[in-house]
Amino acid sequence: MNLSKSFTIGFIGLGLIGGSIAKSIRRIFPDYTIIAYDIDDHALRMAVEDGTVTKPVSNIDESFASCDYIFLCAPVHYNIEYLSILKTCMKPECILTDVGSVKTDIYRAVLDMDLSASFIGGHPMVGSERSGYEAANDHLIENAYYFITPSSSVAQEKIDDFCTFIEDLGAITIVYSPARHDQTTAYISHIPHIIASELVNLVREHDDAKGMFRQLAAGGFKDITRIASSNPVIWEHILLSNSNNIVAGLEEYIEDLQQMVQAIHKKDTGYIHSFFRDAQQYRDSIPNNATGVIRMNYEIFVDIPDEPGAIAGVINCISKENINLKNIGISHNREDEEGVLRISFYENKAAATAAILLRESGYTVYER
Q1: Is residue 13 part of a domain?
Q2: 73 to each of 43, 88, 128, 255, 347, how far by Cα in Å?
Q3: Which of 18, 48, 199, 258 is 20 to 30 A from 135, comparing alpha carbons?
Q4: Cα separation, 123 vs 145, whole angstroms
């Protein structure tokens, strides 16, 4: 891995992901040169003002000729358009990478343009409700899984160097083929987003004029459909880019639902019991200490009496350790959860510390 001060990294796109990776590089490798392009001039100005970007540029051109790595952090189809421009100006030993959640289309374009020996795809498994450079932070990819998807034409030494670089930024690398990556993300991210949105639409279609379904959905239903709040434009691109894997998974899902419909009709208690038992056992085996494709919520639930000052007492207890709260609210529908007061945090450590403080102060606390 080249750790020289002359190492230069380019960014095309400084949104949440691109901006966060750039900030991580600046924190860990303060002497590196970072060149950046973004269609949002305001994002570029902020990145220069906070010291992240060394050189902002207004076009994708020879400005990137000195780069050792170039991160493509725009939407997938824009990244594909940029490949032909970068091919004419980047140096032969430069490594191109991206951060997209679908690899099929960009690898097809890379192959067509004879750039396979220079391209190592990437996909950090991170996200946020917020977007843009304003939401970027220098710890976003820390302890997060980061897919590395090299083509068969890339030299192993370059793959090893790039993995080391990403690990130096604090991420946990997983080397997968582009095809295997797309199948994996289809099942654990793309299809769940479709299912969550369909559940929301199902309830929406049956809601009454007073919006009673909406009020009652504030408990567990809102939790399991949280990802339905994602950007529809992004998901339009993802579904069309990873269509084969998503359609295959949805067809399997529909077949499984049909089996459940038949089991209910037949009152097949054995099938119904095993359906929920197998799901429970597998879900309970999923680790809590890793960052996956779908962003986690860090929450605790606290029992409090219905009296003046009760919420303030909880907040005061937590504030002793200067813990930042993300959100707080009363849970009126507790069919699927315990605790009256629901408190969410930006990180798991804060949630765990808050739970300890509250228990020490005599509160009953429930954790997921």
Answers
A1: yes
A2: 13, 19, 16, 37, 24
A3: 199
A4: 9
Q: Does the residue 236 lie in any domain?
A: yes
| Structure letter (DSSP) for residue 291 | B
pLDDT tens digit sequence for 306-331? 677 888 888 888 888 888 887 777 66
pLDDT of 118 reads: 94
Quote the CA–CA distance of 224 and 200 in Å, as a whole number. Answer: 10
Closest alpha carbon to 43 in 23, 25, 65? 23
Q: Does residue 19 belong to any structural domain of this protein? A: yes
- Full domain range(s) for residue 267: 184-284
- Distance in angstroms between the alpha carbons of the first and the last residue of the chain: 41
What residues contact 76, with CB distance under 8 A and at least 6 apart?
98, 100, 102, 105, 106, 237, 241
* Domain end point (choices 176, 207, 241): 176
| Tokens linked to 279 | 């799901």
Q: How many CA atoms lie within 13 A of 305 on its CB side?
A: 5
Residue 96: other Cβ atoms inside 10 A: 24
What pTM does this model have?
0.74
Angle (CA) 100-83-10 rounded to 5° is 70
Q: Which residue has the tokens 């429930």?
A: 366
334 or 262: which leads in pLDDT? 262
Interatomic CA distance for residues 344 and 306, integer angstroms: 20
